[in-house]
Amino acid sequence: MWIPPACKGRSVHDNGYGIYDLWDLGEFEQKGSRRTKWGDYEDLKMLQKVAKLNKLGILFNAVLNHKAGADQVEKCLAIECRNEDRTKTVGQPREIQGWLGFTFPGRGEKYSRMKWHWEHFTGTDRDEVTKSNKIFRIQGQGKRGWAHDVDLERGNYDYLMFADIDHSNPEVRAELKEWSVWVTRELDLDGFVFDAVKHYSRSFLKELCHHVTKETKKNLTFIGIPSTSLSI
User: Fold this and answer.
1) Which residue of 55, 86, 161, 176 is 20 to 30 Å from 154, comparing CA positions?
2) Would you say residue 193 lies in a domain?
3) Is there a contact between 180 and 211 (Cβ–Cβ < 8 Å)?
């Protein structure tokens, strides 16, 4: 049984693809509600129980490409990229203020202590300095640009929407691996449906699948969904 993203989105009306907090399965008061669009934590655990009683496996729709609904703006250096070809830039790098700070005040440090900041992302779609919606590639120490092992549509299709996760960042890699093991055990999952796989590092996805399989010692099923073109 393939279930929709059960993590807290940017609002209670979000289907789960505008992902805010992976560790919040409808357990914490965040983004205006405790529940997600699909229900609260207790509802999810009941679904898990009934599914298992009826010998149904659960595939979790994991959104690991981007984050949305940041708690605060952060200053960073970025350069505008052309929408039709993300390998081409416009102008020079400049300081922007993007929605890139995720502090999770409703959850605090339960399950994970990591807070997300500009260095954990490759790009964003909003600059509050100029009040403009463009594609901005984040610059700075340790930044390698867009991932290279992604779909080549639009030159490089790493960026899709919101705050684009940098899968080359060591903290990000460790966090997503830890979460994948945790949620597999928490919901006794039988696998994952990975959303928007054409937009993020194939090598990281392979690494994550090996990691969660090894750590949980389960014969998991992995399905990749390319996604539709929803970027600006």
Assistant:
1) 176
2) yes
3) yes
